[in-house]
Amino acid sequence: QVQLVEAGGGTVQAGGSLRLSCAASGDTFMIYGMAWFRQAPGKEREFVSRVTMFDGTTDYVDSVKGRFTISRDNAQKIMYLQMNTLKPEDTAVYYCGADSRGLGIRRRTENYDYWGQGTQVTVSS
Predict the structure, then answer these.
(1) pLDDT band at 110, cuts 50/70/90?
(2) What is the mean pLDDT of the chain?
(3) Comparing C-alpha atoms, which of 103, 95, 87, 99 is closest to residue 47?
(4) Rounded to the nearest 10 degrees, how much is the dihedral formed by the CA atoms of 26, 38, 63, 112?
(5) Per-residue pLDDT at 95
(6) Whole-number Å distance between alpha carbons of 100 and 107
(7) CA 66 and chain centroid, separation
């Protein structure tokens, strides 16, 4: 089993920055990839970014390319999301997901079998 804990959310003005973290514990050897999703009120959970643990391959949704950077520390099993030039449209609860199965559907929620509790990001205009 894997446990995930997100941190780093908060409230910032448009144009500001935040750095989110997701710490994995338990059977972390099982984790093939980790991803960030976000969910705004009234909307479905949306893919944001993913990193493959063993080689650091990254993927981003178009709306955050050039502004967000995902990274991972394999020794500590922590995933980060550096969010720059934040926009009000980025406001959401951000969730960390972990993939232990390698299904290959990396941008879909069903690819991830472990989830954290979420951390709120609010960007004011």
Answers:
(1) very high
(2) 96
(3) 95
(4) 40
(5) 98
(6) 15
(7) 16
65's CB contacts (< 8 A; 6+ apart) are none
What DSSP string runs through the chain? -EEEEEE--EEEETT--EEEEEEEEESGGG-SEEEEEEE-TTS--EEEEEEETTT--EEE-GGGTTTEEEEEETTTTEEEEEE-S--GGG-EEEEEEEESS--S-TTSGGG-SEE---EEEEEE-
Rounded Cα distance, 112 and 102, in Å: 9
pLDDT tens, position by position, 57-94: 999 999 999 999 999 998 889 999 999 999 999 999 99
In this predicted structure, what is the pLDDT of residue 35?
98
pLDDT score at 100? 96
- Listed residue (88, 93, 73, 78) closest to 3, CA to CA: 78
74 CB-near residues (< 8 Å, 6+ apart): 53, 54
Taking CA atoms, 52 is separated from 12, 32, 57, in Å, by 29, 6, 5
All residues at 6 or more sequence positions from 42 whose CB lies less than 8 Å from its CB, including other chains: none
